[in-house]
Description:
By secondary structure, the chain is α+β, with helices and mostly antiparallel strands. Helices cover 17% and strands 39% of the residues. It folds into four domains: 4-99, Immunoglobulins (Immunoglobulin-like), CATH 2.60.40; 110-189, Roll (SH3 type barrels); 197-298, Sandwich (Immunoglobulin-like), CATH 2.60.40.3500; 309-483, Zn-dependent exopeptidases (Aminopeptidase), CATH 3.40.630. It is built from six helices and 35 strands. The strands form nine sheets. Strands 2, 4, 6, 7, 9 and 10 form a six-stranded mixed sheet that branches. Strands 31-29-32-35-33-34 form a six-stranded mixed sheet, with helices on both faces. A five-stranded antiparallel sheet has the order 16-15-14-11-17. Strand 15 (169-173) and strand 16 form a beta hairpin. Helix 2 (331-348) crosses helix 6 and helix 4 (407-418) crosses helix 6. The chain starts with a strand and ends with a helix. Bound molecules: zinc ion. Zinc ion binds at residues 1, 315-316, 322, 331, 384.
Amino acid sequence: MKKGRIGMVLLMGAMCGTVSAEVPLEIVRGGRDTVYQQKHYVVGVTKAGNTATVNGETAKVYKTGSFAAELNLKEGTNDVEVVVSDGAEKAVKKLNIFYTKQRPTKLMTLEQAKLQLDKSVLKPCDFNAISKEGAYIQYGDGDDRLGGSKMGFVDAGIVFKVIGEKGGLYKVQLSQNRYAYMPKEYLEPSSEKVQTVNTGSWFVGKDGKYDRISLSLPCRLPYHYWTELDPTRICVDVFGAMDNSNWITQLNDTEMVDYVDFKQVDSDVYRMIIKLKGDYAWGYSVAYEKNNLVVKVKHAPALTLKGMKIGLDAGHGGKHPGAISASGLREKDVNLSMVNEVKALLEAKGATVVLSRDADQDMTMADRKKVFKDAEVDLMISIHNNSGGSPLVEMGSCTAYKHVVNRELAAKMQNRLTELGHKNFGLIGNFNFSLNAPTEYPNVLLEVLFMSSLPEEEKLADKSYHKKVAKQVVLALEDYLKDVKKSQK
Length: 489
Ligand SMILES: [Zn+2]
């Protein structure tokens, strides 16, 4: 996932030594002159087959030529000598690393201080605003490298009551007792009123490849949807709505939907409950058609790889290399190679494969999602490789999902990846990765191995290993389809 080269290399003044043309030696991590952590990794690259020592201790040289050592620094100056040799000649680099516990204090500009204050204080507001295309709501005002935790997307044309602002977010009141945050760019001040209204009739029936549930409303209200397991159902809370749905038409021709029901969970919060027939869902969407709130539940595909349409996403691309390994392997290339291997196997089994990118090109998250949505894929797998932690040990695989309904698909992937002997870095739930957000099709993110781990880098540098990974991904898909079939009996 991570962008950029592992560790910035600041060698000026911190390093000297001799390098022979025959015995290459490059320090790619840990060469910096001042550090603030006692545990320090030095990572270097030479030619495969050479030997390496760091301060006299032998460091294993991998087939990629990478080697690493963990140092326990003393406070003050530490002399580190890195020696690589091909048996006849050697190359030496001397590092001079200064370790201090005291990080320098950074002085803030007035502008930065103002911005920080802006982000930390909730200022009251009182106006109405209308949502724009692409808008989403967050539970809180939190943030991390992938953004704040999303409640979900909301349609355009919904009037929100704005009661506060904090940094780039507005705080909106959804109902008497429910609040959310929205990025400012998705709201436009409006003179339209926020209303509490009565719900109208429902219609439930089959519509082509979908089951369609429609709730009529006199105006567009904010909503929040999610899935639940045991029993598997889709729930939609409609804010500012009171039950007056005295007519729920059910044609009983639905393929996925067992029955619908509702619950008035607060005096102005109306919950639509859509119970599914099986344990698994194949995607759904919630959006307005005029003022009708429409939930479309996608019918199950054939449940064999033959005939299924599968989306595959190779992470990063173009000017975004993703993580770069010690020996210079780029995550974007590894991801694409793995995707191509999975594609070949799936196509051999009769599946149709839709790729977000098939070349080394830049692509926004929005463009990737559009490809899969437009193609109406039956499910989607995004392939990445990770970075971080110790370069000396294997870090392992992890698989991530956002919606609990995709948990089992992710678990199947994780099981098959760890079968290769990979450590279990974890099954990650509620992951805030953009490509895990869509509900229109099941989706998971694989972080196959760590680019930054030297033993894993060795595997990733071996193209035949990509085939092994691909085989496991396809087995996991077959495991999943088997489970889905079983649950329908
Ligand atoms: Zn990545």
